[in-house]
Specification:
With about 170 residues, the protein is α+β, with helices and mostly antiparallel strands. It is about 40% helix and about 20% strand. The strands form 3 sheets. A 4-stranded mixed sheet has the order 1-4-5-6, sandwiched between helices. It has a two-stranded antiparallel ribbon with strand order 2-3. It has a two-stranded antiparallel ribbon with strand order 7-8.
């Protein structure tokens, strides 16, 4: 689950930096000293977000409720946001996991990426966009388009399995 949250954070264009197990929180709660290390600190365009990852079935356990309650108070007292994250929708996570394979820009022909970035592919389907570019092999074009989807230069509905019929939209 932590890896899934990390992957979604890496895909989020608002996240500029990710720190795993970023800090040790210490507080006096109900007369006892409590300690907790959150899972992630996301530095975003909107400010820091502290994230704890926990399966849904554990969220109602008294010790978890107590820990996350005082953690939220401590984090929010600094003006930061706090998030308790459980499971992502399966299809969304699988699509993002698939696109993550195309995240490394250095693996792609920069001329092809530039050409596809500047071309008018909006409102085309993924399949049409791939077929439109004939100067490079189809496999290279498909991979470049998946890279542009990872970077969110183009967007598609990732809540359903990714297919050639997905329509390309704009991130803006």
């Amino acid at each position: 689950m932590e890896l899934a949250r990390l992957l979604l954070a890496a895909f989020d264009t608002a996240v500029m930096h990710i720190v795993a197990q970023p800090l040790l929180l210490v507080a006096s709660v109900e007369g006892k000293q409590r300690k907790h290390i959150p899972d992630y600190l996301l530095l975003t365009n909107d400010g820091p977000v502290v994230v704890d990852v926990k399966p849904r079935q554990h969220l109602t356990k008294p010790v978890v409720v107590r820990t996350f309650t005082w953690t939220r108070k401590a984090v929010e007292s600094r003006g930061w946001r706090y998030e308790v994250w459980s499971e992502a929708p399966t299809v969304l996570l699988e699509n993002v996991r698939f696109l993550a394979g195309y995240r490394r820009a250095r693996l792609f022909e920069s001329a092809l990426i530039d050409r596809m970035s500047s071309s008018d592919l909006l409102e085309m389907t993924v399949g049409e966009a791939i077929r439109k570019e004939r100067a490079w092999p189809e496999l290279m074009v498909r991979a470049a388009l998946m890279h542009l989807l990872w970077r969110q230069h183009f967007t598609v509905d990732l809540t359903r399995p990714l297919t050639p019929d997905h329509v390309l939209g704009s991130a803006a």
